[in-house]
Design a protein that fits this description.
This protein is mainly α. It is about 80% helix and about 0% strand.
Length: about 260
């Protein structure tokens, strides 16, 4: 339990390693051949990984399938009865609305507003992921020593401020500088996941993690809709203001999480 922040950060760091390599390779393929070939390469990798998972990991216990299906509604109800779990889920949606901006709209903003070439945009995203690859384990180590809740509030509060600095970006150099700082502050995304064992009872871990993941996806889903509307109705730069608000609200909500057994 003492090292859960570090373990969660290492899991996320391994995820970020793919995001370091992907933008460089994908943008190189797109610029050398065409964007279509980037999707072909992604499909080939996905097929290879599907076979890898199929033959490398044990299958689920078949005897538990029926019980899981019949208890899914009661399982969800039990999750939302936990106040801290509800806060974690809502905070995840808010934070991943911000992540949606980085994934979906920052490339568009960098290319169309800042006028960065395709390969330079790919380098930018590999740099963001590369910085997070280093900063996540460091933040995980700190969270285990100073508290995951305290570290999360600080991380998300700083990211709320840093997103506003995008409003000042005019050049590619400034875009790189601000994005590196934002990447470091967003390294704390894994901290919500690391807090689950501290707010949920052992019998509800799986349900809380699954529900939490759905709320992450909800943020990724509605984020582009919000940013698309703001971009067209008000102006491209205002998407960063919206994102800053979501990060601040998440930091504020996390203050309401109650500690269980003094570990969080």
């Amino acid at each position: 339990m003492k090292s859960i922040g570090l373990f969660a950060s290492l899991w996320w760091a391994s995820f970020m390693l793919g995001q370091v390599i992907g933008p460089i390779v994908g943008s190189f393929i797109a610029q050398t051949w065409s964007f279509e070939y980037s999707f072909y390469a992604s499909a080939i990798i996905a097929i290879i990984m599907a076979f890898f998972v199929m033959f490398s990991f044990p299958t689920d216990v078949k005897g538990q399938t029926k019980e899981r299906k019949t208890n899914i509604l009661s399982g969800l109800k039990s999750v939302f009865q936990l106040r801290s779990a509800r806060i974690l889920c809502l905070s995840a949606t808010l934070l991943f609305i911000g992540r949606a901006l980085i994934l979906e709209f920052l490339p568009l903003y960098a290319s169309s507003i800042v006028k960065m070439p395709t390969f330079q945009v790919g380098i930018l995203f590999s740099l963001i992921s590369g910085i997070q690859l280093v900063s996540m384990p460091a933040l995980g180590w700190l969270s285990d020593r100073f508290g995951r809740k305290r570290t999360a509030v600080l991380s998300y509060g700083v990211s709320a401020i840093l997103f506003l600095t995008y409003l000042l970006v005019k050049t590619a150099y400034q875009m790189f500088l601000v994005s590196v700082a934002v990447g470091v502050s967003l390294s704390g995304l894994f901290l919500l996941l690391a807090m689950i064992p501290s707010v949920a009872s052992p019998g509800t871990y799986g349900r809380v993690v699954g529900t939490y993941g759905s709320f992450e996806d909800l943020g990724i889903t509605i984020g582009p809709v919000i940013y698309g509307f703001v971009w067209s109705a008000i102006g491209p730069a205002y998407i960063f203001l919206v994102c800053s608000v979501t990060q601040f609200l998440a930091a504020f909500l996390i203050l309401g999480i109650k500690e269980r057994n003094g570990v969080i």
